[in-house]
């Protein structure tokens, strides 16, 4: 077995939050799968099984364990669509520049469906049908500000996907810095922020949303969640030949590390981000509004959801069933030498 395809064990994963799960997870799961069927996302038996195996409802029900069931349902439906889109990205043929163009064109058409009700640039596309449905339902229960941030978060994430595929198609491995700059947006993290707010019926004041510390906290935690995915989905993606790059491989290429050492480096930088986010939550964000504090709690629940979900969902059956630890592998308070994230450690935050 080659170095790039052999299995990696998953060590204990740091998470500072206790596990909580919404009590209606079974019903929400069933209704989301019915919704996927209605949207046409089950284009073939393989996609039906892949979507079922994501168990996205379980992940969402950990993110928002106390929220209104109908709002959790919308969040869960969106989660199942997001995984179906991820499958589209992974399984689309030909990792070349033509594929990058196809993904960019499709993404822009989906953005149009989200922003312009009735837009039909992809006639018959289940992804267009699904994103239009989710966006209409989100608009019905959100404020103008929350809807704008949902749109912006989705656009930011869609924009990262052609960039990521272009990295795959290139001959030069990305640096860790380059990879992180893209990974901050790849997992739809920017759209999770308004979803957490709306699902939990929160209304965070604009002045708090605009705080640099608030932005740094959110970016650090969502990137930490993406790195968790990189580590815990490594075996699935290597065996399935679905993706050529993640943070483990970026560390290995840049620093000449073994896969085990690169995995440990990825987890170390992840844990340092989480510790920095905890510090921001305890200092700069300690006296924000009650709704903003509830959002901070929700973000920590979101991180725990990724760890728990990837340990149990059939989609990640070869993840190594990582255990949870409350001890970070790296708790350094120093900023890492990574330009795209170093500002999170600014003393002025």
Tell me what the structure shows.
The protein is an all-alpha fold and 349 residues long. It has one domain (13-345): Farnesyl Diphosphate Synthase (Orthogonal Bundle), CATH 1.10.600. It is built from 15 helices and two strands. The protein has helices at 25-39, 45-54, 56-63, 69-91, 97-115, 126-141, 144-169, 176-186, 189-199, 206-209, 212-232, 234-240, 247-255, 259-282, 290-312; strands at residues 13-14, 324-325. A two-stranded parallel sheet has the order 1-2. Helix 1 (25-39) packs across helix 4 and helix 7 (144-169) crosses helix 8 (176-186). The longest helix is centred in the middle third of the chain and has 26 residues, at 144-169. The radius of gyration is 19 Å and the shape is globular. The termini are far apart. The model has no long low-confidence stretch (mean pLDDT 91).
CATH topology: Farnesyl Diphosphate Synthase
Helix-strand string? EHHHHHHHHHHHHHHHE
Q: What is the CATH H-level superfamily?
A: Farnesyl Diphosphate Synthase
**Alpha carbon gap, first and last residue:** 47 Å
Tally of domains? 1
* CATH class placement: Mainly Alpha
Secondary structure: number of strands: 2
Poorly predicted regions are none
Number of helices: 15
What's a concise summary of this model?
65% of the residues lie in helices and 1% in strands. The model has no long low-confidence stretch (mean pLDDT 91).
């Amino acid at each position: 077995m080659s170095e790039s395809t052999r299995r990696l064990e998953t060590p204990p994963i740091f998470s500072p939050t206790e596990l909580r799960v919404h009590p209606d997870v079974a019903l929400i799961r069933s209704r989301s799968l019915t919704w996927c069927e209605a949207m046409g996302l089950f284009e073939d038996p393989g996609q039906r099984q892949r979507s079922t195996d994501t168990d996205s409802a379980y992940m969402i029900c950990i993110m928002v364990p106390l929220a209104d069931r109908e709002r959790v349902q919308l969040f869960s439906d969106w989660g199942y669509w997001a995984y179906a889109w991820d499958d589209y990205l992974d399984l689309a043929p030909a990792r070349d520049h033509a594929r990058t163009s196809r993904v960019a064109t499709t993404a822009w058409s989906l953005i149009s469906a989200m922003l312009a009700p009735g837009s039909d640039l992809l006639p018959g596309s289940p992804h267009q049908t699904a994103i239009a449905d989710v966006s209409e339902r989100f608009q019905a229960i959100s404020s103008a500000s929350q809807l704008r941030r949902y749109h912006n978060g989705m656009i930011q994430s869609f924009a990262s996907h052609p960039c990521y595929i272009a990295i795959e198609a290139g001959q030069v491995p990305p640096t860790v810095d380059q990879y992180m700059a893209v990974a901050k947006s790849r997992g739809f993290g920017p759209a999770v922020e308004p979803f957490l707010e709306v699902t939990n019926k929160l209304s965070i004041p604009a002045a708090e949303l605009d705080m640099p510390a608030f932005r740094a906290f959110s970016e650090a935690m969502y990137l930490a969640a993406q790195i968790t995915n990189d580590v815990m989905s490594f075996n699935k993606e290597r065996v399935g030949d679905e993706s050529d790059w993640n943070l483990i491989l970026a560390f290995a290429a840049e620093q000449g590390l073994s896969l085990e050492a690169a995995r440990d480096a990825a987890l170390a930088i992840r844990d340092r981000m989480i510790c920095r986010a905890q510090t921001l939550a305890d200092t700069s964000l300690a006296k924000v509004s009650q709704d903003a504090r509830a959002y901070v709690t929700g973000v920590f629940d979101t991180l725990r959801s990724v760890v728990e979900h990837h340990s149990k969902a059939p989609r990640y059956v070869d993840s190594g069933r990582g255990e949870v630890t409350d001890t970070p592998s790296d708790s350094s308070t120093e900023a890492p030498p990574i330009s795209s994230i170093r500002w999170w450690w600014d003393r002025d935050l």
